[in-house]
Specification:
Structural class: mainly beta
Radius of gyration: 17 Å
Strand content: 35-45%
Catalytic activity: dTDP-4-dehydro-6-deoxy-alpha-D-glucose = dTDP-4-dehydro-beta-L-rhamnose
CATH architecture: Sandwich
Number of strands: 13
Organism: Algoriphagus taiwanensis
Bound molecules: dTDP-4-keto-6-deoxyglucose
Helix content: 10-25%
Protein name: dTDP-4-dehydrorhamnose 3,5-epimerase
CATH topology: Jelly Rolls
Function: Catalyzes the epimerization of the C3' and C5'positions of dTDP-6-deoxy-D-xylo-4-hexulose, forming dTDP-6-deoxy-L-lyxo-4-hexulose.
Number of helices: 3
EC number: 5.1.3.13
Order of helices and strands: EEEEEEEEEEEEHEHH
Number of domains: 1
Length: 187
């Protein structure tokens, strides 16, 4: 019998970042389809999820790089193919300035949970859908804790696999890494 090859969701480059968890999700398949738990408080994830969002992205879209001082996040690619980058910007973290790159596939469901204080951004190779959750509602953080860095500043160190993504107007105006570090000060 030829096994269907699936592309694995995994970290493909970078080094450790304290507090980041990639949790593979169990897809319970049967003759009707499948059932997958995407979040459960019994998993003891470091995330007090107060808002969930359903996000659709066209191919070649990049969302980010974003940064928040006050809230933790959850990302789960439900369908499609995504490349996700994280960078530790917490001056007191033992993994300060470390970065990670993940290759995520909707056919290998996984939840990435990451703490406040990390630059984060996600690129979509194909039309994709993801779930995201935050520990502070957008209506609260959107006004004063929604920072960003321009996605391809070489000082970030990300070996992105794309060159000319579709980004928001706001993301197009994000500062470089040095200006961002000056702007956020100590936290
Ligand atoms: C984030 C958010 C956005 N929106 C509205 C606001 C805009 O009309 C539209 C797109 O928002 P935005 O361009 O901010 O979406 P992304 O570029 O994916 O960024 C968002 O998701 C990444 C991960 C971030 O970390 C950002 O903080 C967050 O803004 O959805 C809402 O209505 N609720 C929300 O929670």
């Amino acid at each position: 019998m030829i096994e269907k090859m699936i592309s694995e969701s995994r970290m493909i480059a970078g080094s450790e970042i304290e507090g980041v968890v990639l949790k593979k999700l169990k897809e319970n398949q049967d003759y009707r389809g499948s059932f997958t738990e995407v979040y459960n408080h019994r998993w003891n994830l470091d995330l007090n999820a107060v808002q969930w969002s359903y996000v659709k992205s066209e191919a070649n879209v990049f969302r980010g790089l974003h940064f928040h001082k006050r809230h933790d996040e959850y990302f789960c690619l439900v369908s499609g193919h995504s490349q996700l980058g994280l960078k530790d910007m917490r001056p007191n973290s033992p993994t300060y300035l470390n970065w990670q790159l993940y290759d995520l596939h909707g056919e290998d469901l996984a939840a990435l949970i990451f703490p406040r204080g990390l630059l984060h951004g996600w690129y979509f190779f194909t039309p994709s859908v993801h779930l995201q959750s935050v520990s502070e509602s957008y209506v609260d953080y959107g006004k004063d804790d929604n920072w960003g860095v321009y996605w391809n500043d070489p000082d970030l160190g990300f070996p992105w696999s794309f060159t000319d993504p579709i980004i928001s107007t706001r993301a197009g105006d994000f500062p470089d890494l040095d200006s961002f570090i000056q702007a956020i000060g100590d936290f």
